[in-house]
Amino acid sequence: QAQLVESGGGLVQPGGSLQLSCVPSGSLFTVNTMGWYRRAPGKERELVAIITDDGTTTLAESVKGRFTISRGSARNSIYLQMNNLKPDDAAVYYCNARYINQQGVTQYDYWGQGTQVTVSS
Asked: Are residues 116 and 11 in contact, defined by beta-carbon separation less than 8 angstroms?
């Protein structure tokens, strides 16, 4: 019954900024990794950023220096600060939470419905 809810998307000009948020609508089973993915028209879903329970973050090469992922104060909430947005960043952004076991295998995960980010002049 639990699900993730994203918000903060919208229309922004190139060079502008947006902050996306992700919060669970109910209690989740234990997760140890959360992240943001995006899907642009005509492309497959791609990983943007991830953060683990110990605070380790990983960013896609295309967004390094511009995007920052962080945890919120609420349990299993995360944010994505996006600066210096480019037209190629336009996509639907999805929040993900999952449990990865000691062997590196995802046991279960949760997804949100996505929030639209449009970058246009």
From this structure: no
**How far is residue 24's CA from residue 99's CA, in Å, rounded to a whole number?**
15
Strand partners, 96: 35, 111
Inter-residue contact 20 to 6 (CB < 8 Å): yes
- The three-state secondary structure class of 80 is strand
Q: What percent of the chain has pLDDT over 90?
A: 92
Q: What is the pLDDT of residues 65-114, one digit of tens each?
A: 999 999 999 999 999 999 999 999 999 999 999 999 999 999 999 999 99
Sign of the torsion angle spanned by Cα atoms 54, 22, 34, 9: negative
- End-to-end Cα distance, the chain: 40
- For position 1, what pLDDT does the model report? 62
Residues paired with 69 in a beta bridge: 80
